Every structure is written in C-alpha cells, then in structure tokens.
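Thread: "does anyone have the structure for this chain?"

Original post by V.I.:
We have the sequence but no experimental structure in hand. Need at least a predicted one for the grant figures.
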Amino acid sequence: MNNSSKIIKAIRKINPNAKFNFFGEDLDNINWEDTAPISKADIEAQFTAVEFDKAMEDLRSKRSILLAETDYYALSDQTLSDDMKTYRQELRDLTNGLTTVEQVEAVTWPTKPGA
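Reply from O.Q.:
Generated one for you, tokens below.
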C-alpha cells in the first residue's frame, strides 16, 4: 500500500465524512475543505490499524479463493470427506485471534486434502 493510500484510509478511519484534497504522499499536502483539520499525529496513529485492515483484507481474499476451489465438494449431491470438512473449517477459522500485521503474515495455511 502506498503512503498516500495509507494517509487517506487513516483519515477515513478518523472521520469518514472528511472533505479534503490531497497531493503527493506527504501529510503536509492535505488541504481541508469544510472539515476541521485532523492533526498529523492523529493520522499517523491510525497507520497501524490501516495496515492491519489491509493485511486482513488480503488474507480474507486468499481464503475466499481457497474456499471457492472446494465449494464443489460441499454441494448437496457430493459427500464431503471429514478431511475436507476440517480443511474448510480451518480456512474459515484462520482469522480468529489475529490482531497484528505480523500475526497475519505468520499465518500457517492448512493443507488441502486430496479429493
């Protein structure tokens, strides 16, 4: 995620209705419009949360793809093996308890069983 995207997302976390123009990738380049200015410190304080949100979004996206690849096995006319049930549940549980980018990046993906 580039710095300008991170700044915009941080501002939106603080005030989703903030009106501003933003130029470049520096906090000094914010022009507030009909919105009380948000301090640089308050914006920077949101960076960790923004990075975590992005990491979780990426994790969930990959998880969704892996679940979709096994949806066929969960159709009503198919018998889902216990190994496949476990695998799919482990994928769904993957995000439980994650609170930092480091934890997200250290996730161990379950191994897909054979069909």
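V.I.: this helps a lot. The chain is about 50% helix and 5% strand.
O.Q.: and The radius of gyration is 20 Å.
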